[in-house]
Amino acid sequence: MSMRDVKLCLLGDSGVGKSSIVMRFVADQFKPALESTIGASFMTKTLLVDENTYKFQIWDTAGQEKYRALAPMYYRGAAAAIIVYDVTREGTFRAVKSWVQELKRQGSPNIVLAIAGNKSDLDDLREVRTKDAQDYANDINAIFCETSALTATNVPKLFNSIAKMLPPEDFSKALYGSTVRINSAVKSKKTSKRCCGGTQET
Ligand code: GTP
Ligand code: MG
């Protein structure tokens, strides 16, 4: 039983549903007419996964272009990032790729990346194929999930998968702490990069 603080940020174009995903995860609510985020908003949520407690410190960034330059303040030092696109808007998926490049250059070296294709409830309007996004996520070693903040599909699973992919705590302390404990056992556990069905990679 352990308790961990996990700094996490959400990135992605305006209107893809970042705030809606956070509201679904934190309060299990959905508001159809949510205001576009100004600057960023902060929330916390505690999650129990495999007997471990994770306190997510969630930075929900603003997707509008005028706030683009603020993003590094929120992804810097983050243990995990969720990059969100809207399955009904191809352009928002292209934006994911530029976020990934920026995070690989400037994010934490062992940051856990998750890609979320949101609005999966709008399948009739789909522009991004599941397989294309899944293949891309596999290539960059990211968690992939199609979510719906509206129906709640895969939203809890997304955060669960992230918790399971975090490096063991002893390991991260060794990387960032002042003391390197050579004898501390680093537990390895089976993890999956997928959170919405399909075969499990271990
Ligand atoms: P910014 O704050 O501007 O960056 O946008 P955002 O990514 O936070 O998007 P937000 O959560 O505000 O959602 C934008 C719009 O999409 C809102 O009208 C939401 O109600 C709607 N929306 C969000 N998630 C879903 C979803 O899963 N399904 C459907 N159908 N609509 C959604
Ligand atoms: Mg928002």
Put the structure in a nutshell.
With 202 residues, this protein is of the alpha/beta class. It is built from six helices and six strands.
CATH superfamily membership: P-loop containing nucleotide triphosphate hydrolases
Instruction: Give the overall shape.
Output: globular
Strand line-up across the major sheet:
2-3-1-4-5-6
Q: Could you tell me the mean pLDDT?
A: 88
> What is the strand content?
15-25%
Rg, Cα atoms, Å: 16 Å
| Unreliable spans | 177-192, 197-202
Structural class: alpha/beta
Share of helical residues: 25-40%
CATH class: Alpha Beta
Total helical elements: 6
What would you say the CATH architecture is?
3-Layer(aba) Sandwich
How many domains in all? 1
Task: Give the bound compounds.
Answer: guanosine-5'-triphosphate, magnesium ion
Rounded to the nearest angstrom, the distance between the terminal CA atoms is: 23 Å
Order of helices and strands: EHEEHEHEHEHH
Number of strands: 6
Supply database-style keywords:
202 residues, alpha/beta, Rossmann fold, 6-stranded mixed β-sheet, 6 helices, globular, disordered C terminus, binds guanosine-5'-triphosphate, binds magnesium ion
